[in-house]
Amino acid sequence: MQTDFLNEARRQAEICNACRYCEGYCSVFPALHAERAFSDGDLTQLANLCHNCRGCYYACQYTAPHEFDLNLPQALANVRQDSWEEFAFPQSAARAFQKNGVMIALATVVGFALLFWAARALASAGGEGFYAVLSHNAMVAIFLPAFLFPLASIAVSLRRYWRAIDAGRPTLADVVAGFRAAATMRNLDGGHGDGCNFEDEDRFSNARRMVHQAVMYGFLLCFASTSVATLMHYFFAMPAPYSLFSLPKILGISGGLLLVIGCVEMIRLKLRSDPALGAVHAWGGEVGSIGLLGFVGLSGLLLYALGQTAMMPAILVLHLGAVLAFFLLTPFTKMAHGFYRLTALVADATRKRGDAA
């Protein structure tokens, strides 16, 4: 990891540890105040606990023009982003995406869509709906490896992260506590329930917390839709296409709507926020990954709406291209932060249990 980022984060953490004004803001400050000195692993853990809500910055009396020049959200964002690139497998792909995220996302979606269009020759004879464009067997052969690769890649990354922070062995209670904190996004409530100041210094808002929940639960609903459809196909002999009021469609439409709304609003909030309080060099990668996920949801909704029209084949290959690009790029995009943050929350619960003992 970059020594400059770590040294600057260490300098600021030591000042914050002496001040302790922001102790109740989020999980970062109790974890920070539990230490007397900060190793590289400690700083990496603090960085991944940070949700970049920025409330501490606007409350701080030591920001510029004070000589201490504190900007803890940016310092931790730089360490956090660098840790994702350092632990990623393979590293080169992560660094490339953070520098050129929007262009890589666009090129990958278009490239895969063209490949799917060319692969229409594999369509099954007499297939219905989407399978008239690309056979079920072809979809499984393409997407099963594409689904397994990011899981394996992220597993390697998180193992590297856990070793770096030296968090010890978690218990089931620690894991449950981490999942609970992630599910409620409690670290985005500002410590008092009124929200944070991400997009506006003078106004507390829960908008960022809500759009994060919309994206997370939208994605989980879409994943549930695919999972239910898989079970119906293989175990109940009920292949697609499904009716509008079937469980896969209900889950998919509700999830797609949440994804699109959440991603659009997340980009809007990011555009309104101060870029100097985050990892400036990663802005393109963040917008590219959010936009890609939003397009997955949008193209899926268009398929539902226009699946019986002549536009269906073109929309389907774009949707499949976006889904394939999303899966393959997930370990190197902003989406990976969810796995790191969940792991950091589990590690924090492990630390708290150890301190209590």
Automatic annotation (TrEMBL):
SUPFAM superfamilies: 4Fe-4S ferredoxins, Respiratory nitrate reductase 1 gamma chain. Keywords: Membrane, Transmembrane, Transmembrane helix. Signal peptide: none annotated. The chain crosses the membrane at residues 101-119, 139-158, 214-236, 242-264, 276-304, 310-332. It comes from the Bacteria. This is Citrate/tricarballylate utilization protein.
